[in-house]
Amino acid sequence: MLDSRPVTDDDAILGVRPRYVAEPSTVAEAAAVMRAAGEQGLSVVPRGNGTRIHWGAAPRACDLVIDTRRLGRIVEHAAGDLVVTVEAGVPVADLQALLARENQQLALDVPIGAADGPGSTVGGVISAGVAGPRRLLYGTVRDLLIGITVVRADGAITKSGGKVVKNVAGYDLGKLYTGAFGTLGLVVSASFRLHPVPEQRRYVTTLTKEPLRDVLRILHSDLVPSAVELKGPDTLVTLLEGSAADARAAEAVRLLGRGTEVSDTPPDWWLRHPKGEVLLEVRAKPTDLPAILELAGARVRGSAGSGVWLIGAFAVSAPDLVARLRERWPTIVRYAPEAVRDTVDLWGPSPALPLMRRVKDQFDPAHRLSPGRFVGGI
């Protein structure tokens, strides 16, 4: 028998209501739930706080939701080694508050998204592959993740990586689980490399008439920005961190010229997605910025230094915009109303799809984990 709680309408995943909801509080309990689900042939969808449960496609089936929020322990914080191990249900905000007591941080920005809510959990961030402005300097969750514990579809507990930053034994399977939307296994804990909290943070904002020129000025300078973010066609914000942030901010002002201001707080749109019924994510070279602005204009927001652009769109015009963007760049529909999800391939074509299918077949032979949520209906 599967130990579960009563199901409510709030447990539905993009309109697909599960038959059961399980809330394991230990890794052993999570493994037992997965094993029981396998024995009964149940389809399984993991969920944390649900901050990005509306991302990706609706599951083809959802017999069981595994709610990970009771997996909420800080397993180990090795402050001297700048490493932390936490369970999947820990909210990222709570983790950052704990690390701040030791003047440390997980250098990962988690965008707030369409609704503030309770905030993303560690497992949710890994499964959705979330990253924000500071990916330019620190990388994404894939780069900060050094070890992961996952429960396979058959209930077996597997580990990859370790608790130390330098770990070269075997393949880095953690990268496979990152951004896989729960289609390869249930993430139950993770280890991350940490960074010291910077002494200073300065946000340099410039109103620009030539955004690409100013982006390249920053990227080709010696300023070492943590982030270079653009809002629409005319607002550029450069984040500078560290003990010499004031001096570097002064140099940025000199470099960018008139209309440039410095603040120790971010603008109100920082870490927020652009408004719109549909959220698109485009991967392009920074030098493609003028072409992207020509297509989307004021609806564009994103990491000018990394070439990751977010576009807010209206549902009625989204399919046409997606088609035009995909003529030139990889474009993902992060979230959209059901009418758009039914008419547009959310993920778009992927040359790696045959390999991804083989990986799926090996990790989840019966295709019971988050079926249909990921690229190519995986």
General description of the model:
This protein is 25% helix and 24% strand. The strands form four sheets. Strands 14-11-13-12-16-17-15-18 form an eight-stranded antiparallel beta sheet. Strands 4-5-9-7-8 form a five-stranded antiparallel beta sheet. The protein has a three-stranded parallel beta sheet with strand order 1-3-2, with helices on one face. The protein has twelve helices and 18 strands. Strand 7 and strand 8 form a beta hairpin. It folds into four domains: 61 residues, Uridine Diphospho-n-acetylenolpyruvylglucosamine Reductase, domain 2, CATH 3.30.43.10; 123 residues, Uridine Diphospho-n-acetylenolpyruvylglucosamine Reductase, domain 3, CATH 3.30.465.10; 63 residues, Alpha-Beta Plaits (2-Layer Sandwich); 64 residues, Alpha-Beta Plaits, CATH 3.30.70. The longest helix is centred in the first third of the chain and has 13 residues. The relative contact order is 0.13. It is α+β, with helices and mostly antiparallel strands. The two termini are 28 Å apart. This is FAD-binding oxidoreductase. InterPro entries: FAD-bd_PCMH (IPR016166), FAD-bd_PCMH-like_sf (IPR036318), FAD-bd_PCMH_sub2 (IPR016169), FAD-linked_Oxase-like_C (IPR016164), Oxid_FAD_bind_N (IPR006094). It comes from Actinocorallia longicatena.
